[in-house]
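agent> Task received from the user: take the single chain below, predict its 3D structure, and emit structure tokens. No templates, no multimer pairing.
agent> Plan: (1) validate residues, (2) run structure prediction, (3) serialize to tokens, (4) report one or two observations.
agent> Step 1 OK, no nonstandard residues flagged.
tool_call: predict_structure(input=
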Amino acid sequence: MIKVGIVGGTGYTGVELLRLLASHDEAQVVAITSRGENGRRVDNLFPNLRGYYDLAFSDPDIETLSACDVVFFATPHNVAMRMAPELLAAGCRVIDLSADYRLRDHERWSQWYGEPHASPETLAEAVYGLPEFNRHEVAKARLVACPGCYPTAIQLGFMPLLKAGLVDADHLIASAASAVSGAGRQAKIDNLLPEVSDSFKAYGVSGHRHLPELEQGLGDIAGAPVHMTFVPHMLPMIRGIHATLFARLSEPTTDVQALFEDFYANEPFVDVLPAGQYPQTRTVRGANRCQIAVEVPQGRDTVVVMATEDNLVKGASGQAIQNMNILFGLPETLGLVQLGLLP
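)
tool_result: status=success, residues=343
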């Protein structure tokens, strides 16, 4: 049985880890931390977990966490990078859901996050945890950096095209919309129901923190530098991401439907829809699945890819558990067979 610790158990990704791990046959959560809720029972804060956990929140103590086989960081940025080196030195594996280890260049990280990186010497060891691209490296890792929610959908959408060298990698465009839970559980006026309900807006258009992660990851996929225009939007709902991607085809006669179907034929968590069907956020809600559709409108030279996911599952906690399964040589689908919730 894998002994699991979770740092930052009171946010949306933390409680989603708890929900998913409750049905995992090979993992047991033995420590969950929160300074603000220290001593409070987990099922008191999250009644949906009653009967599944007999745990209380505790302070994030290195000695306690070091006794775990793996520690998930479900925290804002700048937490994991301060604690991970000690946990790694103690022989613990670390899966970070924050942005601390996603960028290989610590100076670039500092430019986007506004502070020096606390453990730049550890960045070279971090493996980017997009299993569909990097599972063989994940299997050998001690430190896994889980992709952001937007980058997961966008990279899965562009990957077959970039791997085949079929699109102009200098002019990729992603217009993507995320549910409000993507902004976290902290109190912010902009996230209140009266502020987001019955409305739709763009944000971060001049530059979003996911952009350097996207260009780094897509560049790795393409094997050459890429350039992207990324426009995120806020959706007035709780869960979900819908990404619409645009690229110029170098070979407009390519059967892109067959390309995507063949590329993802053996991927358990990527579902390529039949031609003419388009993904919806509601069909992946609660599931560790990305649904993808591809079109070439009017048979011209622009390919349009649509990708949906639950930002808290395939975009965060579910993908983190998928990486844990790979790390420990378990079936990749273990604990992650939940179907999407309808209606």
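agent> Step 4: summary for the user.
The first helix runs from residue 12 to 21.
agent> Done.
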